[in-house]
Structures are given as structure tokens and as C-alpha cells.
Specification:
It is built from 7 helices and 9 strands. The chain is an alpha/beta fold and about 230 residues long. It has one domain (about 5-230): Spore Coat Polysaccharide Biosynthesis Protein SpsA, Chain A (Alpha-Beta Complex), CATH 3.90.550.10. The strands form 2 sheets. It has a 7-stranded mixed β-sheet with strand order 3-2-1-4-7-5-8, with helices on both faces. The chain has a two-stranded parallel ribbon with strand order 6-9. The longest helix has 22 residues, at about 210-230. The termini are far apart.
Length: about 230
Amino acid sequence: MKKKVSIILCTYNEELEIETTINELFKFIPDVEIILIDDNSTDQTLQIVQSINNPNLICYSRKTRGLASAFLVGLINSSGDIVGWIDSNMNTVIKNYPIMINKLNDADIVILSRYIEGSKDERNQFRVIVSYLLNKFSKFILRSNINDISSGLFVMKRELLLTAVPIAFGHGEFFMEFLSRIEKQGHKIVELPYIHPVDIEGNSKSFPNLYTFMRLGVFYILRLLRTLFKRQ
């Protein structure tokens, strides 16, 4: 029996990429359910999404903002046997998702990794170095064997949520905590290589400037320490 796939998209001012991302998902994952949560975009993102006539695209518009809480809204409203997430502006990696979904025949969760053979990170050098160091520090603190624990690009079996649920506050650090928990529970995690593209706008929402990037870095570290101490 064919399993239903739900992909969660969290958007804030993604007018340059969102239509392409949605079209690529429909192209590479037939009959996919797309759950899109828009966090009060001030550009044309919501209008573009609402103009797409497909019953498998379900959109929720919020007045609040926050990646982790938006993901939780998407998770609650999804109905797939398989659930995944992708950055709204990373449509070039969607071609990897059919392979990831197939790998779930022998895994509980499959993530795309920047730090295994065959992968590459094409962003600016500063972000590449900082992301690499943050990932290595996270692996050390959490005593994890996952090569890219800060990836966030994944598909997983829905039944995984019976033993672990993402604690949805903060930014991308919530997913590192989730991966650490399911790893310690013995669930099978598979990593596949991919090429991380250059951000079309130059910087991501998490790196509009150095101050914001460093502030989010502090939150990441505090979340890592919280995760570590909760396990002990």
C-alpha cells in the first residue's frame, strides 16, 4: 500500500522562491500533501500561495512568527504516514526527496547532510565555517553520532512521534534536540549527501546581519545545554 507523504513549509517573505518550491514538490513527490504555514509575510508570499489551485496545498496564515511553532502547526495539521520538512527557499534539493522517502523502508528518519562524502556547502565562507563549527560543537555536547545534527532537512515515519515529539519553541535548534532524543531511543537515522545552495537573497532569515546570527547562536548553545541536562 502506497504511503501518503506530507511536507511542511514554513514561510516568511518568500515571494522569490515559494511558487517554484511548491511546483517542484508536486513534480518530484506525486500526490504530496503540502502544509504551508505563513508567519504574516509582508510581501506577496501569501497571495502567490493562494493563487495556486491545488487541493493538496493547504495554507495556514498566522499573525505570530517563529519557526519551531510554525513547524508544530504544520505537524498537527498534516495527515501523511510520512512527514517531512524543507526550507521554503531550497527548491534545488527537492529532487533528493524521492530517494529519502524510499530509504524509509529501512530507517525511521532520513536527513540530508552537509558533512558526509558527496556533499557540499556553497554558501559564503563565513556561514560555511560557522555552521561547521556549530555542528561539531553540537555533536560533542550531545555525544551524537549524527554527522549533520543541525541539518533540519528530513523525512520521517509518522509513527516516530509515538515516542518523541519536537518541543516547538525557538528556531532551528528545536530539531537538533529532537534528533538527539530519537537517537538515544535507538531509532535508525540515515544521512544522505546533498549540495547546500547559495541563498538567493544572499543571507537567510537566520543571518540577516552578524548581530542576529550571533544572538541565535547563543540560543542554540543554551538549547543544547538544556537538552544535555534533561537527559542526565
